[in-house]
Each structure stands twice: as C-alpha cells, then as structure tokens.
Amino acid sequence: xxxxxxxxxxxxxxxxxxxxxxxxxxxxxxxxxxxxxxxxxxxxxxxxxxxxxxxxxxxxxxxxxxxxxxxxxxxxxxxxxxxxxxxxxxxxxxxxxxxxxxxxxxxxxxxxxxxxxxxxxxxxxxxxxxxxxxxxxxxxxxxxxxxxxxxxxxxxxxx
Length: 159
Ligand SMILES: CC(C)(COP(=O)(O)OP(=O)(O)OC[C@H]1O[C@@H](n2cnc3c(N)ncnc32)[C@H](O)[C@@H]1OP(=O)(O)O)[C@@H](O)C(=O)NCCC(=O)NCCS
Description:
Elements: E1 8-11, H1 17-28, H2 34-43, E2 47-54, E3 57-66, E4 75-84, H3 93-107, E5 110-118, H4 122-130, E6 134-139, E7 149-155
Parallel strand pairs: 4-5
Antiparallel strand pairs: 1-2, 2-3, 3-4, 5-7, 6-7
Bound molecules: coenzyme A (COA).
C-alpha cells in the first residue's frame, strides 16, 4: 500500500531562524557563508520563506523572491534556496516543497521560475531537471568560494 504524504507548509517565523541557519550551514557552506547570506535574505521583506514540516517537525525550507509586478508582461519568481535535512533527503520532501513554492509563485502571477545551482551539485541538478527545469546558461566563479553555477528555469504553466 502507498504511504500518504502528510507534509505541512507554513511561512517561516522568527523562531525558525536557528533551524534555517543550521540547515544552511550544513548544506550550503561549501559554497560560501550561506548561513549568514540566507539570514540576510530572510530579513528582506520581499523574500518569501516557507518551512515544510511533518508531525510538528521541521524538514526543510525554501525561499523565493518575485520580480516587481510589471504593468505589461509576465512576472518571474527566483528560487533563492531550497534545503532539506540530510537525514530526510531522497524521500520526496524536496519535490513536495518545490511544488508548493511553484504554487506560491503562481498565486503571485509568476509564469516562470528561475534559479542558480552549482555545476558540481549533481543531486540538485538531477532534482531540478526531474522537476522540469532546463539549463539556460553557465557562469564561472558564481559562488563566494569560486564554484561555477548553472542558471535554470521552468515555465509555470497552469496546472
Ligand atoms: C536538492 C534537494 C533539495 C533535493 O531534495 P530531496 O528531498 O532529497 O529530493 P526528493 O526526494 O524530492 O527527490 C526528487 C527527485 O530528485 C532527484 N534527486 C534527488 N536527490 C538526488 C540525488 N542525490 N541523486 C540523484 N537524483 C536525485 C531524483 O530524480 C528524485 O526522484 P526519485 O527519488 O524518484 O528518483 C536536497 O538534496 C538538498 O537539500 N540538498 C542540499 C541543498 C541543495 O543543494 N539545494 C539546492 C540548491 S539551492
């Protein structure tokens, strides 16, 4: 029998700062001082940060920012970060959170989502490709510690 997923999504609050900082240090620090960078993003009012939970337990977070609403033309969402606790990776949590962030972006009328991910981050590359993101371009020395990155994007067609 299939196990039903029972994830809960909620906006991050002040009390989540430590969780986000620690998880960022665990999963992003090889690219730079992301535990600080991510907290600085969090403090920007325009950044939407969501937590995914299961049975009152935080599993991960994601952040996105939307470009300004244009009078004409479409809106784009930029996924700044997505991170899942290492012990909960590879069980569909990231996919569920990414789908939730796409839904949030659609509610703000975004028609496209884009992101950057490190060229050497093979799990993330597979993850985003499986979710329908396509590679747009390459940029060397993108991260504070010098790694190259790939820009990826996905059209957010109505479901
Ligand atoms: C990338 C990340 C968010 C994926 O989250 P996750 O919960 O482990 O991913 P899921 O279990 O939902 O996987 C969905 C699909 O992505 C792909 N995928 C995920 N992890 C993978 C890995 N380690 N190797 C290869 N493919 C992978 C698979 O196709 C998978 O589907 P499948 O399990 O049916 O084969 C997670 O690994 C993570 O937090 N990594 C550290 C932070 C990071 O690099 N974030 C991305 C850049 S901001």
